[in-house]
Amino acid sequence: MEEKRVSSIISWFRQRFGNQRSDPERAESCSSSQCSPDPYNSSKDPSLNKPFPSNHQSIISSSSGHLPSSSSHTLPAALSSPFRWSLSFDLCVCHAESDKALAHSLTCFLESPAYALRCFLRHRDCSPGGAISTELLQALQESHCCLLLLSPGFLRDRWCQYQMQQALCEGPVSERIIPAVLELSYSELPPELRFVSTLNMNENPEHKFAQVYRTVISYLKDMSENGKMYQRDET
């Protein structure tokens, strides 16, 4: 009888917990499933099968491991404000082709249910057949904040340069602009951004994704509480 009782308990535990995944696995599944529409797929994009540099991998694994539980996490009030919904995106992520995997991972983190931001990625969200210059300018105009992922590849990409200059038209100290530096020295930064606070993606990378989130939320909160509606000059 005792053996049957033990066997029954073990069977119950297997049925109850056998199919549950570990927290990191749930976080990875969550982040990959939330990058819609049409997330990067390694079968479609071979570049995502390349190994990450050590600092990229650290950022990705750390961000996935620190997702708060969606059941206990309450989204900030700024995300339901009328000001937030006045534009299509919360963050425009400007990045070079060589940094696409990192930008994609950041976007998955920010778009997960725990954070629920709306991000724009050039290779994912541009309309096929549309003029690139028009698409990028419209993305900036329809985004509350803009993250510039400054890297050697960024400095060589003419479309990154175009988008950066468009973002800087309102001034390099705009609260909307979030410069994130990756593998660049101070002397290599664009002159317009050398006297602006930046996120160093090479140091303590596990905190940077969350810091980007807090910066966007702070901007939305300040603008919502002050009753300001951001207006851009039409060209």
UniProtKB/TrEMBL annotation:
Bias (Polar residues): 29-48
One of the protein's GO biological processes: positive regulation of tumor necrosis factor production
Pfam entry (one): TIR_2
InterPro entries from the UniProt entry: TIR_dom, Tol-interleuk_rcpt_adapt_Tirap, Toll_tir_struct_dom_sf
Full protein name: TIR domain-containing protein
PANTHER family linked: TIRAP (PTHR22662), TOLL_INTERLEUKIN-1 RECEPTOR DOMAIN-CONTAINING ADAPTER PROTEIN (PTHR22662:SF0)
Annotated region (Disordered), positions in chain: 17-48
One Gene Ontology CC term in the entry: plasma membrane
Domain TIR residue range list: 87-220
